[in-house]
Each structure stands twice: as C-alpha cells, then as structure tokens.
C-alpha cells in the first residue's frame, strides 16, 4: 500500500537540504514489469498507476511507462526510481500518498526497450493515454493512412527502419516483435476519452498493421484483445506551488507530484487473455456493456468541460470552478446536461441524477485549478465525441439540440479569437475562419462532422448561437 501523510510534518529546512524522494527514502518494492503504458503523463499517474498500486496483487504488476512527444517526464521520474507523490485535493485539505507502481519511466523514442518489453512473455497488457487525436481515424472511423505522420511512419516501417514516431506506429512495431517472439496473446487497454475507445484503438492499430503487412494484421486479429474503458479523475497540471506543498507536508523533494481530486472511476469491458491486476480492489467496475457508462462520462463530464472551456474563456474565465460560478455558464451546462440525460438509458446503475449532482460539486472545487485552456485543446476531435452525438440524437427525437449546438458555436468563436489555438486540424480551422457568414459556419461544421455541415437547419441553428465574448452564451 502507499504511504499516507494526513498531517503535515514540520519541514523547516530549505528545499535544497531536503532529501529527494526515492525507494530508499520510501521503501516501496519494485514489482516485475507486466504492464507497458504509452503516454506517461499526470492522468496516467493519478488513475491507472494509482489503481494498480491499490490492487491486492500489486506486488506482481509493475508498469513500464513510456512518454509521447518529449522525454522530460521520464527523465524526471527516473531520478526518483519511478516514485511520485499523489496529492488528493479536497475542499477540506490535502492528503499525500507515495505511488510506486511505475517501475520504469522511459523515453518514448527508446523503441528498443519498448519492443523488448512488449515482446516479453511476462507482459500481459498495454495501456494507452495517447490523446484522442493520436488514433488518426478519419470521418469513416478508419485509420487515415494519408495523414502525413501516419504515411511517414508507414514508409519507415516499409523500409525496415525501426524509428516510427507516432504512438500507433511504435505500438505496431512492438506488437510485431511479440509475434516474432511467440509470446502469445496480449490485451491493449485504451484509457483515452473516446466513445467505444477499445474499437477506436482496434481500428487504429489494425489499420496500421494492415497497411504495413496484411499477414501481421491477421495475427493481431487473433492475438490482441482491445479493452474499452471509461476513465474519470480530474487531474490538473502540477504547479510550483504544488511542489512546495509536497516539500512542506512530506519533508522531501519530489519533482513529479500529481494533484488530483479524491473522486475516481474506472469502468472496463473486454478480455484479458494474459491476466490483469485486481483493479476492482480500488473500485474499478467490469461490465459487459460499457456504452451507457462511457456516454454518461463523455457527455455529462467531458461535454460540460468543453462547453465551459470555450464559453467560459469567451466570458473571461480561466478555470472550471470560476466558470461554473457564472450564472450564464451554469445555465448552459445544465441545459446541455438535460439534453444528454434525455438520450442516456434510465438504468438504475447509471444513477444519472446523483452523477450530475456529484459533477456539480466536483466542478465547484476551487482548490482544483482545472484550467480551461488545457481542456480547450484538440476541440475538433473532442466535439465529435461530446457534442455531435447529443446534437444528432436530439434532432432525431424532434428536438432542436440547441444546448449541444451552443457548445459547437462557442468552439467556433473561440477558434477565431484565441491567442493560442491547438488542434490537430488547426490549418483546416484557420482556412474556414477566413470565410465569412454562413460559409464560415458550414466549413467549420465540416471539420467536425460533414453530415451536420450538410444540414441547412443545423447550420442556421449554430449560426444563430454564435455570438460575441461579452454576450456568451447566446440565449437558448
């Protein structure tokens, strides 16, 4: 179990005089690597790594976590033998725990180590937090092999080079090594915020493999299980103030603490042919049909986050808690929740009224500085999962879908005014924003969903909801 620090000890020494967190200072045993993770970041450490440490068989399940674009997180974590402090930040105060389930922190570009670990027979599963955009799927739900980064990786793989740069290219290369080693079946567990994310991961990986080697794609079909999950734990970026708080409370230096809320949720559906940790010991739920749970989370939590990210920033707010205090933003969120709830099954297990109440309380936790600018990134991908399904369902039911359309309208206005706009389709968005009037609305809708862009009534609805920063959100 992790070491807990509920009452801060005195730590009056200067920071430089405090010891660095490591496994000698906090004797957390190293488990053997049986899990490989792609996308080492704060959320993985607050969620999957935390769940793994809470498992009763955690001594058997070590994680080797690989970074994505940059090696920084791996370098920092390696200095501490993979240990870090998890800070649970509640309204009433902080609690501190040392997490040691990550036993290797590795630069994602170290493909030799990645392939060796995935090929090892002891490795039972690969978990992914590579962001929504990294799966590279087109509007048809299949891998877009014409995308420049995908095409570049396929060319490298075809030439025999072992240096693909995308997460999927690297994973496919590593799975090929497992096939060649005869190490048997393995599970790939997608933990990104995507509807039916196991299928998304399957389409991305299988599409990559098929474009490279159809025979290898057949091996994946018979030997790789793709597990769908719904993940939930608000985890803002760590600040210098958080580093100082850990030093003061715990009496050591930690360069990689993670701050998160006390709440956590993990729902999984799929097969684990080589085994898995007992994540249920920490409250994980294993179900046969995950779709209602993932839609509840994607629409109610993530959808509200996106709505606040765009409308809130247009109204001058910086954090989720700050935006939710704004009566206009709160009204827009409640209206979207009403639309989303109307299209979720009313099964008792979903407990939607209770879930909404819990979300309002979690969003209002002002001690969790969940920055709207961070949530706003990659909007074209996120809105396909968070706004488009609700809007289409509302229209199919004969209702307007105005609250979901408002989220899209706010994104459009934000895309035209933001000082920094990060999106995988930023060039397409910029080109659309050079148009005027209804043509701009059509072009921006086409970036998100071509079907909606072809519906004149939806185009008019979104156009009417677009507004100025001072007046946002527009009246529903």
Structural descriptors:
476 residues, Rossmann fold, N-(1-d-carboxylethyl)-l-norvaline Dehydrogenase, domain 2, 2 domains, eight-stranded mixed β-sheet, four-stranded mixed β-sheet, 13% strand, EC 1.1.1.17, 6-PGluconate_DH-like_C_sf, NAD, Mannitol_DH_N
Kindly describe this structure:
- Helix content is 46%, strand content 13%.
- It has 476 residues and is an alpha/beta fold.
- It folds into 2 domains: 4-288, 3-Layer(aba) Sandwich (Rossmann fold); 292-465, Orthogonal Bundle (N-(1-d-carboxylethyl)-l-norvaline Dehydrogenase, domain 2).
- The strands form 2 sheets. The chain has an 8-stranded mixed beta sheet, sandwiched between helices. It has a 4-stranded mixed beta sheet with strand order 1-5-4-10, with helices on both faces.
- The protein is globular.
- Residues 34-280 form the Mannitol dehydrogenase N-terminal domain.
- Belongs to the mannitol dehydrogenase family.
